[in-house]
Amino acid sequence: MDRRARTYRGALGLLLVGGILVTGCSGTGNEATADRGVAGSGGDKRAPSAAARPQEDGAGQAEAGAARESVAPDYLSTFALDVDTASYGYARRTLGDGQLPDAGTVRPEEFVNSFRQGYERPDGNGFSVNVDGARTDAADWSLVRVGLATKTVADTGERPPAALTFVVDISGSMAEPGRLDLAKTSLGILADELRDDDSVSLVTFSDEAETRLPMTRLQGNRTKIRDAITAMEPADSTNVAAGVEQGYDEAVEGHREGANNRVVLLSDALANTGETDADAILERVGDAREEYGITLFGVGVGSDYGDELMERLTNKGDGNTTYIADETQARKVFVDQLPAHVELRARDAKAQVAFDRKTVKQFELIGYENRKVADDDFRDDGVDGGEVGPGHTVTALYAVRLREGASGHVATATVRWLDPKTREAHEETGSVGTGAIDGRLWDDAGARLQVTAVAAYFADTLRGGDLQGTPTLGDLAGRARKLAASTEDSSVEKLATAIEQADRLRNDGGESPGGEGEGELG
């Protein structure tokens, strides 16, 4: 793992505190220290009293009465792409159970990336880059949306065969309804969906790990595979490290050239035995990840869910994570989204957004706190990025304060990625000017941009942030209802329900025995 030692400088293990949500992007750890009072690189953690401040030039800081010496920012924002959606799914589950989600589990980018964006798709296997925006209700502030999209797969038969190693948590905590039973249902659904030329293996873990099924072709063995899935029963404690290590051993043993080789971890991620640190767990299987290109897909379950561990595992494991609460969501993940979860379009994908000093006074990246990459590592292909599958979209939303009377170029966004097969590097760019972000957000912007804004503002509120122009939860719920009607999108309808639940819980003091829409999690 030496080649990845510089990955996410000062960002891995970032624990956000208090009401911090929105963080300005910085080129280096030192600059962040000078400009925003953040600890330097090599263990970047915010002090409880530190407020996340947008990047601002020296003149702007003087206007704000800053007493310390000003350090002009580089006007670059660089981060690894992230297609995770688990944070939003788990928040909806928590709200449906009558509780507000813990602020530390709310990641705005995962709320935003849970919704269709309507981006133009590329013709080939790379990315399209879409940049737009609109003015918010806060004076001088706009939202700028950077959208990246990969080509969809018209027919699952077009993909290469898959070699999937399922690593299933059968610890005692998984005995509760909606955990192991849902994992077994999910694997049954997937076993029906996979093709004859796909292969699967099955590893279970509690206090120890056990291989229940070596890598086996689906053709002629579907009954055998189903029997292995059905036979799983809950046992003792949760040794995630043992399960992941055994899973990677099986994935290497059953590795297939030309196939999509992936470990699929199904767990509530409540590790309580053995190694419980994500970095240390993945360190054990580093050679398998590097030499064989085996990626990790995390599927979270359970009302009590180790969100942080699962998210860090998949970030370090070159993969992504999602959360399922019922069979409807399981079908969405393992049927509708199957190609996106087993196939790759891009490895080590990173984005860099360059803002124009002449037109931009301040900018804030909403979310992506633990996906930041040093600016000078953008074109270092030895530095870890994100893995993206077919049909995925990735959205980065910025709050941008334009200079008075600004006109012209605002920002240029560049995405860089490696071809999964050849490891050849590619780049694509897109840009936006003041004319394209001059419309009013709630009056002139397209419905999809408005949905993106609602999701981001909702996440900001749940995190206790202070994003400029954030409406009240009641206003957000009303806008979501109208957008659901105009788009005829059930996912937006469910967003409105979640916001209404949060509004009621806030008014009731944070907890209730459940409310309307409880369990409505599809």
Brief overview:
With 522 residues, this protein is an alpha+beta fold. The chain has helices spanning 29-36, 58-63, 86-96, 108-112, 180-193, 222-230, 240-253, 278-283, 286-292, 307-316, 327-336, 338-342, 447-462, 473-487, 490-508; strands spanning 22-23, 55-56, 76-80, 127-135, 141-150, 162-169, 199-205, 209-217, 260-267, 295-300, 320-323, 346-355, 360-366, 386-388, 393-402, 409-418, 425-433.
Features:
globular, six-stranded mixed sheet, disordered N terminus, 522 residues, 15 helices, six-stranded antiparallel sheet, alpha+beta, disordered C terminus
The DSSP helix count reads 15
Radius of gyration: 22 Å
- Global structural class: alpha+beta
| Secondary structure: helix percent | 25-40%
Topology, number of strands? 17
Oligomer: single chain
| Unreliable residue stretches | 1-53, 58-72, 512-522
Q: Gap between N and C termini, in Å? A: 38 Å
Give the integer mean of the pLDDT values: 84
Characterize the overall form. Answer: globular
Q: Main sheet, how many strands, which sense, barrel?
A: 6 strands, antiparallel
β-strand percent reads 15-25%
